[in-house]
Amino acid sequence: MFKTPKAARLYFLLAALFLMLPALMSLYKGETGRFVVAAGKLSQEPFKGTIIYMHRHSLEGAFGFVVNKQLDLSTFDGPAFIKEADIPVFWGGPVKFPHEIYILERIDNPPYVLVKKLGAMEEENAEILSFIKASIVAGEGKYKVLAGYAGWGHLQLESEFIRGNWTTVNPDLALVFSLDVDQAESWARQLSKANKERPLKETKIF
Predict the structure, then answer these.
(1) Cα–Cα distance, 26 to 147 (Å, whole number)
(2) How far apart are CA 206 and CA 201, in angstroms?
(3) Theoretical Cys-Cys bridge with 194: which of 58, 137, 144, 167, CB 3.0 to 4.6 Å?
(4) 70 near 88, Cβ under 8 Å?
(5) Could you tell me the CA-to-CA distances from 94 to 42, 48, 68, 161, 206 in Å, in that order?
(6) Which residues of 17-54 are buried (b: 16+ CB within 10 A; e: fewer)?
(7) Is residue 83 within 8 Å of residue 73, measured between CB atoms?
(8) Residue 47: DSSP 8-state
């Protein structure tokens, strides 16, 4: 009876694992949908005292938005239609700031956060922001406008977790969409919540 040499079997095993690798990597969701909170070791700007809603996190990288750092529009040098909209705008992160504008929309059934990026058509953008302003005036709590985003490359966020720069906590959608946020107070509250959850998180290997 013919037997496959050990080297050939090992080759086929490695080939199978290689073919399965993309699928296995796609299963890793990391901190997607959670708050990533600046820890005490992260004491320098621009991320000092920040809370990030992590929109997407995989082994290939991470993408999210700072939700507790409102911009002073009197010094904002991004698109003119943002100032003209006369609505609160938040610093989403240093990547593509201040030129890329994002909108977070709250979906309630089931609850999740929808992310939209504004395009290049200023007239269309002005109409969108006018609609959002009406929603804000009505007190619906459904939208947040941000300039820029926070991004990490391949395994970069994991390495920052290991260094103690960040901790995580379950998200508070009311905070995600709050337009009246005290940065220091909100950060301290979420950091305290994260510290209480830490015994559960210590079993997770990054």
Answers:
(1) 28
(2) 10
(3) 167
(4) yes
(5) 16, 13, 14, 19, 24
(6) eeeeeeeeeeeeebbebbbbbbbeebeeeebebbbbbb
(7) yes
(8) T
User: What was the pLDDT predicted at 110?
Assistant: 87
Q: How far apart are the C-alpha atoms of 73 and 87, rounded to whole Å?
A: 9
Res 185 pLDDT > 80: yes
pLDDT in tens, 20-62: 544 444 568 799 999 999 997 788 889 999 999 999 999 899 9
Q: Phi/psi class of residue 33: alpha, beta or left (left: φ > 0; alpha: ψ in -120 to 50)?
A: left
pTM over 0.85? The answer is: no
Backbone dihedral region for residue 86 (phi beyond 0: left; psi -120 to 50: alpha; all else: beta): left
CB 133: neighbour CB atoms within 10 A? 16
Beta strands in 73-164 (DSSP E): 89-91, 101-108, 111-117, 143-147, 150-152
Contact 72, 86 (CB under 8 A): no
Note whether 146 and 100 are within 8 A (CB): no
Q: Which residues contact 28 (CB under 8 A, 6 or more apart)?
A: 58, 59
